[in-house]
Design goal:
With about 150 residues, the chain is mainly beta. About 5% of the residues lie in helices and about 40% in strands. It is globular and about 50 Å long.
Length: about 150
């Protein structure tokens, strides 16, 4: 069962380019998810104090076995949206151990609900999508307790 591949589109309004590695990432991140370089540490600290928002890193892990496919796995992508599908972003998932893949979405504000799905690309370029039967997966970042 082959799935049709599609492009995830982003707008310059919702992304910025890392000054260190040159890759694009969502504008609401305060550091590059690829090389971890903060985009403007002073501005980030000012915004954190002004808004009082606490941000967390969200780690998504999946288990994918090659026995489920006729071809070997080429790569696994996490495709996610922080704003109910208005904009979608993609992160390459790293294989951490046998059949376990991981991606980390950095600096997600409290109370944000990430919706996401997994896309597996096989060696023959076939795309297999796991999207919870079209319902997507949801992860709500819980509010943090204030430090006393």
């Amino acid at each position: 069962m082959a799935k049709k591949s599609f492009e995830i589109k982003t707008s310059k309004f919702f992304t910025k380019t890392c000054s260190n590695c040159g890759k694009e990432y969502p504008s609401w991140f305060v550091s590059c998810p690829y090389c971890k370089t903060p985009w403007d540490k002073k501005k980030y600290e000012q915004e954190q104090q002004k808004e009082g928002k606490i941000k967390k890193d969200v780690k998504i892990m999946v288990k994918i076995t090659e026995e489920n496919f006729e071809e070997p796995i080429k790569k696994v992508n996490l495709k996610f949206s922080p704003n109910q599908g208005q904009a979608w972003y993609q992160l390459l998932m790293e294989e951490k151990s046998d059949n376990i893949y991981e991606a980390q979405v950095l600096e997600v504000p409290d109370e944000t609900t990430l919706i996401y799905f997994i896309e597996v690309e096989l060696e023959n370029n076939e795309i297999v999508v796991e999207n919870n039967n079209g319902e997507y997966y949801h992860y709500k970042v819980s509010p943090s307790e204030p430090d006393s």
